[in-house]
Amino acid sequence: MLIVGVAAALVVAGCSSKSTDGGSSDGTTSDSSSSAMSITPRVLLDAQGSEVPAADVTDAVNPAGSGNATCKGVSLAMAGALTGPNAALGQNILYGAKLALDKHNTANPNCQVEMRQFDTEGDPQKATQVAPNIVGDGSIVGLLGPAFSGETKATGSIFNQAGLPFLTASATNPTLTENGWTTFFRGLGNDNSQGSVVAKYLTGTVGAGKVCVVQDDTDYGVGLAKVVTAELGAAADPSCAASVKSGQKDFAATVSQIKAAEPDAIWYSGYYAEAAPFVTQLREGGVTATFSSGDGSNDPEFVKQAGSAAQDAILTCPCIPAPPALAAEYQDLNGQAPGVYSVEGYDLTTIMLAAIDSGVTDRAGMLEFVKAYDGQGVGKRYQWNPQGELSNALIQIYEVN
């Protein structure tokens, strides 16, 4: 079945994560108002910040293929955070991949492809521990992941040396494609494109004359904050620029610093596990400035944990929300709606399945297939330059309401 065209009612959130409900003593909340809020797509922009129409994806490549594929002894792998504080982001990717696999394996009884799961918890050190297990399995001809920039940086040379194509649905640090890896492909725009668009949107559409940029200590957070700060120029107020740590729950000092600066907007570069308590404490501290953050926070867990404090937050992502037909299939299979990176997980898995269906049986064949690939996915076209970057980068603006 071909994916229907993207309608106005694109779906990315309103989805429920599989973690438990309830407030906590760490500054996160889960009030009843959060159940009525969702992360809603607002506008799709190109790398120059210009609005572009959603793609008509009636010709999107179908993971089911012809239904006549034959294969034996080949598998795929997924590496990313499947447990831990940011597990929802990795699960979104995995569940997108599962949908593509389900369609493929149902349609192709003589080509049953397994995707082996490797949980990194989003931790670079743990990722380096599982990477040898991935490359040591000769049946694995392609890897979906790693999910986070830090773990990709830590393991990329391992995968590259093993000749294993690794396609990330979510790692956006720009320097990843500067390492000379020849088997790495990024399935979305990097932070250079996102950061530039963010700055233009905050100073233009939002009208922010003063922005406080706050970053966490991850490769993703540091890299994205650097780009946003540079692109904001004079609008980035150094008096309230701040750094926080992964796992931090008490943001009192940073809240006081921001409150004193009286900014128009706050940009947070990091993940939802810290973004949720941070925005909660900002609102409790009387800071009313527009809160904005990137793809690391763009997950229903941010809304769930922050509760009413998430209201009107602006979230961005170089990822594409799922069109209604795909969202319904995803919901039926996984028991929850698609989230950030779900579409990229689906599309990248589809590409690797298409390679297997074409007769690819090893890593070298997968690499050549992906290098030469040019095909329509859900919401974007996939074609890579020699460095592994997409030829076209799109940024979606979302709002919590």
From TrEMBL:
Biased composition (Low complexity): 16-35
Species this chain originates from: Rhodococcus kronopolitis
Name the record gives this protein: Branched-chain amino acid ABC transporter substrate-binding protein
Chain positions covered by the region annotation Disordered: 16-38
Keywords of this entry: Amino-acid transport, Signal, Transport
A UniProt-annotated Pfam family: Peripla_BP_6
Family per similarity comment: Belongs to the leucine-binding protein family.
InterPro entries in the record: Leu-bd (IPR028081), Leu_Ile_Val-bd (IPR000709), Peripla_BP_I (IPR028082)
Keyword Signal: yes
Residue ranges constituting the Leucine-binding protein domain according to the UniProt record: 74-385
Keyword set includes Transport: yes
